[in-house]
Structure formats: structure tokens, C-alpha cells
């Protein structure tokens, strides 16, 4: 790596990297960043700050996440990296046959069918119990205050809120969805930038979660309200499903990329896709970022890794191939040999058997957190539990209705999950957390910012500001309009179906915090494609 802190990018950027010594919080929303910083200044650690920021984001960025969503975390503390999988399972009584009997050939996006058990409240409680310094009641207070007293809606949030409202107004006409409109469009429209929005029900729910360490959400009053709403409207989710939820501590997985260990949460998350792509790419040498060969090989590696992920990855105990087999050097070499000078039509290989928010935090004690949570597809299922402000996720939409697929819908199963936190270390010492949110863009964003950092020496802000691309399907690749025109033409000449996008938010939204190993100085970058902010002191 040429530099962690100084190298800039030769394209115009909206801001410089942020430097600090005592603590840092990077998110897509300024108020949430400040909430995390407030907790650090009160004596909380990076874990407390991450929880506070995550809870606050359910209020100040409801278009991307909520109390009714899932979460994952990578936590560096006391010389070790810990992984937390707080994704919920499908209801025990759901099945492919049951969905078909209800009149569906595919799992719908909205309503009760795609709803899985929410994991975010359990993640907050588990992180607080294991690593936090401050009581959960104090850590969740900033979010409670914003929910009860209201906050001015930010510009990018207003844009996506209106987009979500327009979609739901056309699609969600049944009475079961009325609570969503009462909660998120109380004036018959989405709030505009600068308007104050509040949700007293959301505040009371957060207060209950804080007071009971999330017990009320899974076994108490809130669980009863969720289960009753489900039963009254033909949902499969029950009180028993909620009571059985448990966030799991897991061993993070990694590959070594040019001397740096890049870490992800193991399946059911799609972080393995990013690691497999990096495993393929480390067999090539890259000297120039703005080269058609660099972009071409990155795209081809992602295509190969993604097709494997979509065929082979689900909850780990349902996978036909192990993580070790998929990330083996031998399999990477086999996949690498498929990359030629022309764009390929990707197909999954067979390893031999031998709508999301991301945040990063760091403190002056050495703790660092990579945290991500989501309702999926913006606001999620379109369901809001009456009297709670809880918008339920629609993560079950990712299940396959093919009974022979590894990710086939089954009762009590975790689906192939898009949200993934990332972390980087070198020589068993932390470099820091990173992440790029945005559905299936996420592993592609991980690969791009890791290579921007390691191969091309860009600092965190420059690594995030650099133009991005996104493989969509087959040979279709979307590129930002900031990508040099001649590179787009050269990629097209290699057989890529290049489509220039004018929508910057379709390329994900990222955050990065690195720590200088010698001085302890923190350097952070935040997403210039949204309302991102690095709060530091």
C-alpha cells in the first residue's frame, strides 16, 4: 500500500479525508454521526457509538433501515476481531407449498410473505452486553429524542422518501398497509427537505428496547403486538418465531490480498463474493487505476464470484460447498483462467469437494466497529406494526422458490443476505472498518474500495470518491457518468454492454476509517453521493 493517509484522486471531489485522534463516526446521515460522537464524548466506546448511531439511523434514515430489519457487525477490540450475525430466520411454518397455496409463484416484495424475524434490536442488545461501557438506556437516548421531538429531513433522504412513497402509493392499496402511510406520509405525501418529521410510536418502541435490553421486542409487549398483527392479517410470523431469535457470534472469514487481510462475515452473507473476487484478482498485477485492463479484470472477477455466490451461498449449514472450498487458492486459479481479453457470459463453477445503512466507528482505546443494518428494498415490506412505528423488513424476498436450490425457502432458515460489513488488518493489527451499502452493489463496492486503497494508494475519501461501476447481469455493466468516456468505449469494445447511469446513489454509499499504526491517528472518508458525514474529535 502506497499510503493510508495522503494520496488523493485526480478527479474533483467534494471533500477531503477527515483526521482525528480521539474518536470518529462515519455514516450517511449527519445527525446520526453526531449522535455517535456524543456517546463517545460521554465516555462510551466505539461499540456504544455504533449502537447509538445505528439506532439513530432507524429514525433519521428510515428509507434504508429500521427497527424491523437485520444487522451484522465486525468488532475489533482487545486485539481480536469478532463477528456478529443478527439476521433473522424465516417463520417456522412457512414453506414453498404454503406460499404457492396463498396464490404466489414467486415470493412477493411486499406484505407478510417476505417478512423474516427482525435482528437489529437483538444486535444492539448483544453488542451492548458483550462490549459496551454505557447502559443501553443512555446509548439509545439520542435516537429516542429525534423520534419523539422530530428532526429536519435531509435532501437525499427526502428524495428517496418521495421515491418510496410514490412506489408504495401505486402498489400498496390493501388496508394492511395503512399504518405505513399514517407513519411515513402523515400529510398525504413524503416530507420535503427541511421539514420536521417525528414518530412518537417509534420513540416509545426504542425506549422499551432500551429498558428491557430488547427482551420486550422478542418475548414481551412488542413481540405480542408484532405477532398479533401477523395473525390478524394471514402472516406466518408468530410469537414463537420471535422468542426463538438469537444473534450469533461467528468467526469472520478472510483472504490475504497483497499482504492485507480483508475480513467479512461468513455465509449467509454475500461477503464471500467480495473475498472470492479479490482472491481471483490477486493473481494479476495492477499499476494504473484508470486503465481499461484494470476495469475489465475487476468486472470479470466480480461476474465469476457473483454467479458462484448466487448458486452456492445460503445459510452455511445448507451449502453444498464449504467456505474454505470456495475461497481456496486452487479454485481461484481455476476461475482466474476463465478471464480473457473479452467479456464473458458468466456461469457458476463447481468447487472441488476437498432500499441499507453502513457505519464505522473508532475510539481512542483501539476499538473499531464495522456495522450494517437494513430493512431491504428501501422501507421494506410496507408493513408497520400498529402503535409501534416498527417497519418490517422484506428480506425473505431473496429466498428461491426452487426446492432444489441451496437458498430454497424453508421454515426457520436464514436467506442469502446482501448486507455485509468489511474490515481490514495487516500483520494481525487493525487497519480499520469499511463498507459500501446498496443491495448487490455491496461486494462490488468492497472490491473497488479495497483495490483503490491497496493497489492504488488512495486515502479513504479518495477511495470512496473514485468513479464506480456495477455489474448487473450477463455482460451488462453500469458505470457512473464520471468514468472517462474513452474507458467506457474501450470496455464496450471488449464485449461489455456498457450503460452510463446518471443516478449516483445506484452505486452504493460507503464509509471508511483507517488507523495509522504508528501514531494512532484516525483518517476517515464518507460518501459524497449522499448526505454522508464524518464526526470526529
The CATH topology comes to Glutamine Phosphoribosylpyrophosphate, subunit 1, domain 1
What is the helical fraction, as a range of percent? Answer: 25-40%
Low-confidence stretches: none
Supply Rg.
Answer: 22 Å
Overall number of structural domains: 1
Biggest beta sheet attributes: 7 strands, antiparallel
CATH class: Alpha Beta
The CATH fourth-level homologous superfamily: Gamma-glutamyltranspeptidase, small (S) subunit
Structural class: alpha+beta
Query: Which shape, going by the Cα principal axes?
Result: globular
Strand order, sheet with most strands: 1-20-19-15-14-9-8
Strand content range: 15-25%
Number of helices: 19
Distance between the termini: 26 Å
CATH architecture: 4-Layer Sandwich
Mean pLDDT: 93
Number of E-type strands: 21
InterPro entries: GGT-like_enzyme, GGT_peptidase, GGT_ssub_C, Ntn_hydrolases_N
EC number: 2.3.2.2, 3.4.19.13
GO molecular function: leukotriene C4 gamma-glutamyl transferase activity
Family: Belongs to the gamma-glutamyltransferase family.
